[in-house]
Every structure is written in structure tokens, then in C-alpha cells.
Amino acid sequence: MKLFTPDTAYINPKALEYECGKKAEEFLKKSNVPIIYSKNVKIDEKSISKNYAKSKQTILITTNFQKKLQTCKPSADYQFSLSSSCPANCEYCYLQTTQGEKPYMKIFVNIEDILNVIKDHIDKNIPSITTFECSSITDPIALEHITGSLKKCIEYFASTEYGRLRLVTKFDNVDSLLDINHNKHTKFRFSINSEYVINNFEHNTCSLSQRIEAIRKIANSGYPIGFIIAPIMLYDNWEYEYKNLIENLKDALSDYSEEISFELIQHRFTSTAKELILNRFPNTKLDLNEDKRQLKWGPYGKFKYVYPKDDSSRIKDYMTNLINKNFSNSFIEYFT
Ligand code: SF4
Where in the sequence is the domain holding 322, given as residue range(s)? Predict the structure, then answer.
């Protein structure tokens, strides 16, 4: 997939004190992106959907001095970020409600400071292994070509005895990460879905075949791998399409014998997310009918609408059987 280039870039002048900041500036200049040297991003379009569209074309190169990392269950012990937001426009994205009306991308360039905070968290937990997720509020692969900071991060984790990194992506820009020392300490998960879900709801992400090609490259480079299938949706033909998806994966990975993990997440939404989604994507085909769902109390203090018990059990049983039948080397981390 063509690498993302923003329409507008802001650079916090402080970011230019860092090597990754200079690299980002060089990339932006070479790509003829207009640069504004300020940490204050101004986006003021005439409607919610226009603010959203403009934000997804705007980046801020800046720093991040967060000292205490948030926990990240069930995926990892902690989460940290090399960036926030991403250039894709997934209609169901759970970040819709957490990144405000203008989810422009921030790219954090003080990678050495970020790694020091990670080291502190690892050291406090020795002799246990501490796991870190770096994809909770972004897609780190989508923006990697701008700074190269994920590569540095993977190399750092390769050198630590007690730290492990996990990431997830819908992008295929993995070539710069293939021939580096990862020491199997970084787990690469790809977010995949049926053709219907990808084609209708995951705008500006890689196609399934592009993701599968990237998975093959990453697997051949010896990284531990896994898949997140999310959000799993019920629609006409869903069983056939998810079967196709798993069988395609099986063909692509027929020579991969290491363990493969699967994380399964059914489609859910909150009332706030529904309102935002309808503003941003007025013609959405997402099924947001509360009458066909049941309420579940979420860990972030909000009710969410999930499939009723019978439907959710049907999805869980079907997907579990499908995966177990096609991958003897798989394990399902969770279904939620
Ligand atoms: S790629 Fe991930 S973070 Fe980006 S819009 Fe899609 S779901 Fe959200």
C-alpha cells in the first residue's frame, strides 16, 4: 500500500532536538508537505465530518514525557505510545470516542525517554516478564516510515531479558523491520477480518491480500505472530466469509509451525460511539440497532451494546471450531 503522506504537518520546535524529529522533518520536506512550526494544531472546518476528515490528514510531530504507564488488560501488562490516532478511517474504530472531534495524529519523537520509562517498569517487575502493548491508541506500522522509531523500539526489546513487546496493525509497511534483531521479543499481530467488513468499514487500510503478504514476511523473519479478528460481525453470509478468511490464512502459513495466537472480539458499540459514527459516516452500513443487542457493563464505566447471548455463543463456537480445525498450532487467547 502507498505510504501515508499527510496534507499538513505541525512540528513542535522542541521535537527537532531529537534524531527522530529531524528524520520526520526531512521526510515531510522531501514529500513537499506544508509544515507549520507550532505545537498548537488548528483545525476548524464547518462540520463534524469535515473536521474528522481534515484531522486524518494532519500530523503533529511532538514529544511525550508520560512517566507512569497505563495498564492494558487483557492484551499486556502496560501500554505506551509512539503515536496516537492513525491515517485510516475504520467506521467502527473504538478510538472514535476517545480522541475527540479532531483526531489528528501525534507522533512522539523522544524515543529514548519513552524507552527509559519502559525500562523503569520492566526493572520494577524483575524477575517476572513484563509485556507492553504499543497499539492501543494508534497503528504503529502506518506511521513508521516517518520516524523509524518502532524499529528502535523492537531492537530495544530484543536487548532486554525481561521485557516483551506486542503490536497490532492493519498495514503492510514492514520491510524495514524484517532484517533486524528482534530476538523473538516482539509479537506481531495482524488485525484481519472478512472481505465484507474490510471492504465496507476499514477505509484507507491495507486489503486482506496485502495484510496476508505482510504476515508471510513477518512470519518468515521469525517473529512470534498472532491475529486479532475484530470486530466479528453477524450478517448474511458471515459464516462463509469467515471460513474463507481462516482457510486463506491457513494456505498462506502452511509452512509456519510455531504457535499462532488468535484474539476474537465481537462487534460492540456505545451510545456515544453510535452518535459520532452517524455524524462521521452518515451512510454507514454498520448495524447499530440497539434492539438487536444486549447491554453489557464495560470496564471503562460505560454500557456497551453487544450481541445477545445466543448470537455471541454462536460466533464464539463457530470461530473457535474453525480456527482449531485449520490451525493445530493455534491457541485462542480470548473471546469477548
Ligand atoms: S486502523 Fe485501527 S486505530 Fe486506525 S482507524 Fe482503524 S481501527 Fe482505528
Answer: 8-335
Q: Is 229 in the pocket of ligand 1 (CB under 6 A)?
A: no
Substitution candidate for ligand 1 out of 95, 136, 138, 229 with most atoms within 8 A of CB: 95
- Do the beta carbons of residue 182 and residue 154 sit within 8 Å? yes
Please, what are the averages of pLDDT over each run of 10 residues along the chain (336 residues)?
Answer: 96 98 98 98 94 97 96 92 97 89 96 98 98 97 97 98 98 98 98 98 97 97 97 97 97 95 96 93 96 86 91 98 97 94
Q: Nearest 5°: phi and psi at 257?
A: -110, -5
Q: How many structural domains does the chain have?
A: 1
Cα(122)–Cα(120) distance, integer angstroms: 5
Helix, strand or coil for residue 119?
helix
> At 293, which CATH number?
3.80.30.30
CA distance 170 to 187: 15
* Residue 311 belongs to a domain: yes
In the block, which residue shows the cell 509451525? 257
Which residue of 86, 134, 211, 265 sits with most ligand 1 atoms within 8 Å of its CB, as the best mutation to test the pocket? 86
